[in-house]
Amino acid sequence: MIFSSPYFLFLYFPIVLVLYYISPLRWRNPVLLIVNLIFYGWGEPVYVLIMFLSIAIDYSHGRIVTRCKAAGNDRGARMAVASSVVFNLLLLGFFKYYNFIAGSLATAGLGFLPVIDSLPLPGGSIPFTLPIGISFYTFQTMSYTIDVYRGDARCQKNIVTFGAFVTLFPQLIAGPIIKYKDLDGQLEHRDHTVEKFASGVQRFTIGACKKVLLANALGPLWDVYLATPSSQLTTLGAWLGITAFSLQLYFDFSGYSDMAIGLGRMLGFEFLENFNYPYLSKSASEFWRRWHISLGSWFREYLYFPLGGSRVSRGRMVFNLLIVWAATGIWHGASWNFLLWGLYWFVWITLEKLWLGTGSPGGWPTCTALSSPLWAGPSSPWRISPPWGRTWPPCSALGRGRWMRISSTICATTCPSWPSPSRPPRRWAKASGAGCRSGRGWPPSRC
User: Fold this and answer.
1) Bridge partners, residue 125, by sequence
2) How far is CA 420 from the centre of its chain?
């Protein structure tokens, strides 16, 4: 059930609002848990049992962590956190990556792991598929035990309230990823005002317009260019297709996040922002501070910083970045192109941190509003379209003939330090706007 579907808009959500607001305050979390499970069970009537297991395991581990810390047993608390993390990673790994690993080994001639097509159940079997939202709710439940151990959040003693957090339907399917510490206080008390509800309606409407009016309209344009044979595809058409894909991806994902934030406000919750105009970024690092903010924040707080972050030697920092971006890539999907997509961003981020800078004066050739989708977009088909061959025709056409000079001009116009045919790369360090002020800038129209 997607938020823009008639079933959700005219049946499910109106009933949820009525049940939620006629319930006494102390019964609203139980009501939320029930409607959340109905929402999830609509698409996953069997795998909802996996969610029950995840709730029970992480709730109990949170209690164990609290008891061990109260008794001064830090080693026991650490073991409980490690046990919770291992359980969640094994759960996610089995459903999301088992067949990918088995298939890759079979391709390499090591077919000792059988590919699973179905799971046996009493009285029959079910197809072995990825449970909806498992990539999101496993990260959320992992954050709970870690936050409790660090003292960033209180242990939740009410399993119904904890279950409501894990299954909260506005962000269950496509995020944003909610860390427990960000929602801890709101689970116990949240404000319900007319102004907040109206703000939620407005935000939901904006998100629905992004998805239905923009993303759904741009998608067919990308499909046309993706299906066009390379021999018939012009370079200008290839760039148009890539740009359409970049914008479609942004409006679809950010629109869904806007709808989730709006739904949360209508129920009294305040979720953190998940997008902040990413195509206005001036560097790859800034792009990922603006794109899917909740995922980047999660990896930064629970993986990058524990590994040592950037306060280590240069070699160790590169290793930390490699682990984080490999994990980011493979989190998005179980295939080699997702991993390569993550490594693509690892290369950009590493180059920025070590040599190129992050968009400050004198830094590397960073792109602004016009050119940002152009350098972010060509990487996206690697990630979104598993059949690599289908992505190469438009990508291979991007640099044909004199269009390379045109695209270079676009980047040079929007990025003062971009190397152009009339300015070699050796002048990058001196080309960050100073040229225009001194009358020696390029292109002349910017001076």
Assistant:
1) 120
2) 34
Lowest mean pLDDT among 220-224, 362-366, 398-402: 362-366
C-alpha dihedral over 392, 373, 243, 337, to 10 degrees?
30
The DSSP line for 294-350 is HHHHHHIIIIIHHHTTTSS-HHHHHHHHHHHHHHHHHHH-SSHHHHHHHHHHHHHHH
Contacts of 77 (CB under 8 A, 6+ apart): 64, 65, 68, 69, 149
The secondary structure element, H or E, covering residue 287 is helix 284-290
Q: Which of 295, 261, 332 is nearest to 177 (CA)?
A: 295
Helix (H) or strand (E) holding 221: helix 216-227
189 is a catalytic site residue: no
Residue 98, CA distances (Å) to 92, 115, 130 in order:
9, 8, 10
Digit-coded pLDDT (tens) for 395-405: 555 555 444 44
* Active-site pick, 189, 192, 292, 332: 332
pLDDT digits (tens, 9 = 90+) for 56-68: 999 999 999 999 9
pLDDT at residue 373 tops 70 = no
**Whole-structure pTM value:** 0.81
How far is it, in rounded angstroms, from Cα 398 to Cα 137?
38
Amino acid at 355: W
